[in-house]
Amino acid sequence: MKHDQAKHDGTKRDETKRDQAKRNETKRDRYRLLISAGEVSGDLQGSLLIRALHQEASQRGWSLEIMALGGTQMAAAGATLLENTMPLSAMGFLESLPYVRATLALQSRLRKYLKTAPPDLSVLIDYPGANLPLAAYLKRTYPHTPLLYYIAPQEWVWAFGSGTTKKIVQHTDHILAIFPQEAAYYRTHGATVTWVGHPFLDALPHWPSRTVARQRLGIPPAQQAIALLPASRQQEMKQIWPILAQAAQLIQQQSPAVHFWIPVARAEFRPFLETLLQQHQLNATLTDDPKLTLAAADLTLGKSGTVNLEAALLEVPQIVVYRVQALTGWLYRRLLGFRVPFISPVNLVAGREVVPELLQEEATPEAIAALALDLLQPSKARSQMLEQYRKLRLDLGEPGVLQRTAALILGSLGQFS
User: Fold this and answer.
1) How many CB atoms are closer than 10 A to CB 13?
2) 251-287: string of b/e by CB count within 10 Å (b at 16+)?
């Protein structure tokens, strides 16, 4: 009798396992993903990834529901935008304080939503201020759900200590790195890491040529065009744009035929930009197409960020400018001992100065203008920069980055289901 009961129980367990396997097979046809990004660059990277994920899922016969924290680019790529994080981005301690309350409220709303629609997998894109608390919550609440970091915070550049790095490694199942230095750093700290390469390698063939871009913008072949790329964050706009506008005025005085082109990162910045253009009487045009602007330029002046790599891959000479509030700069240097060799991703990947960086008090209108006037000519500095650009491309990996990344992400679903 006991033997018959044990046999019955064993058969029931086997049936339960088979039923669970069938449910898993059904589940593998449809997945819900959460992707979290902040800032305009994160929104761009997220949008590229979302398109690749949908394409990879289609090839597998899967259906994806992608929920996103991000911006309009991620929404346009096919994600359901839960929260717009673009207005909440800031760089620096003091600059971030006004957004703490709004960020906490956003996280509270997100957690309530996830209780009704938990993700099968989550992908975080940079944005450590918000993504690290989110990572801790996801791992605590959904411990068996894969959590991946695509483009991890640049701890390999400016880590103040091991605290943040430890949190990233602790909460993340897999880091998909776009820089070789990023991969090496996190691997040495115990993370599971795959270097996928930089996604801009995939986007480059879709950029317009210089000739096409200038034709679309109506730039005469002989006219020199300078792209001014002030910022995507409000605080950066206030700190950097006035310096760029003054530098542009000095350049215009020396070279009156130069015309400035300024892509507007966010619509609310337009009135501020227009006011300064009038004040400095610049020969300038505001645009809503950053790709055309960058592809058509003879030179770019702007903040450090992913746009530096775009300019390098397009072989457009550039000058990198960055400033934060004086008190923030003092805190970083004196209290935190913040010292990095470079801040532009171009120089960081190359491991040497490929493009000039003017930071804090070095970022004066006179210094920017002097460098710009030299790079506008067929000078030694210009030719050396272009030569280094070509070497840099080899350090960014091989094309097919987005397909590889999407395949790794969806492959994680199969491993954890």
Assistant:
1) 10
2) bbeeeeebbbbbbbbeeebeebbeebbeebebebebb
Q: How far is CA 79 from the centre of its chain?
A: 17
Strands (E) in 205-283, as ranges, are 225-229, 259-263
Query: pLDDT tens digits, residue range 186-205?
Result: 999 999 999 999 999 998 89
Nearest to 209 by CA among 309, 110, 143, 294: 294
Interval 355-396: pLDDT, tens: 999 988 899 999 999 999 999 999 999 999 999 999 999 999
Residue 159: which residues within 8 A CB-CB, separation 6 or more?
165
Residue 85 burial (10 A CB sphere; 0-12, 13-18, 19+): buried
pTM, two decimal places: 0.82
Asked whether 135 and 170 are in contact (CB, 8 A), the reply is no
Q: Give CA–CA dist 169/18, Å, rounded.
A: 35
SS (H, E, C) 151-179: CCCCHHHHCCCCHHHHHHHHHCCEEEECC
Q: What is Dmax (Cα atoms) for the chain?
A: 101
Rounded Cα distance between 259 and 292, Å, is: 15
Are the beta carbons of 210 and 223 closer than 8 angstroms? no
Task: Report d(CA 37, CA 85) in Å as an integer.
Answer: 7
Displacement of CA 381 from its chain's centroid (Å): 28
Q: What structural domains does the chain harbor? A: 23-197+398-416 (3.40.50.2000), 206-394 (3.40.50.2000)
Give phi and psi for 403, each to the nearest 5. -65, -40
Both tokens of 308, joined, read 């530096």
Specify the DSSP element, H or E, that contains 413.
helix 401-416
| Token pair in block for residue 186 | 């996190």
For residue 68, name the pLDDT band (cuts at 50, 70, 90): very high
